[in-house]
Amino acid sequence: MKTVDLETIRLFLHVLAATVWVGGQITLAALVPALRAAGTDVPKAAANAFNRIAWPAFGVLVLTGVWNVIAADDNSAAFQHTLSLKYVLVLASGLTAYLHARATSKRGMAVWGALTGLTALGALFVGMMLAG
What we know:
By secondary structure, the chain is an all-alpha fold. 87% of the residues lie in helices and 0% in strands. The chain has helices at residues 6-38, 42-71, 77-102, 106-131. Helix 1 (6-38) packs antiparallel against helix 4.
């Protein structure tokens, strides 16, 4: 059996947090029609419950992401450009999620929610590119 080391723990925490942040958004989006059918207040209650675990997961993603950058020894231009794109997508994911949570219109919720999902998926994809 391979040894568990600090790198394994760092990557596990990062992937676990990404599972909650990205996977939770996909799951919640898929459940919205059923939640609406259960009652008009149910989607908002579910979103509020999700936010109680999603935002801490986002925080873990940011912290372990910084840890990942510190641990990386690739200073190539390609790595740095890809890393810059990752920063933009992470920032956009957090900002659009914040705006989605504060939206008061159905259109605003839909637009910000879609952008949150797309930027979260983009950050996940670019993160996989960085991992090699």
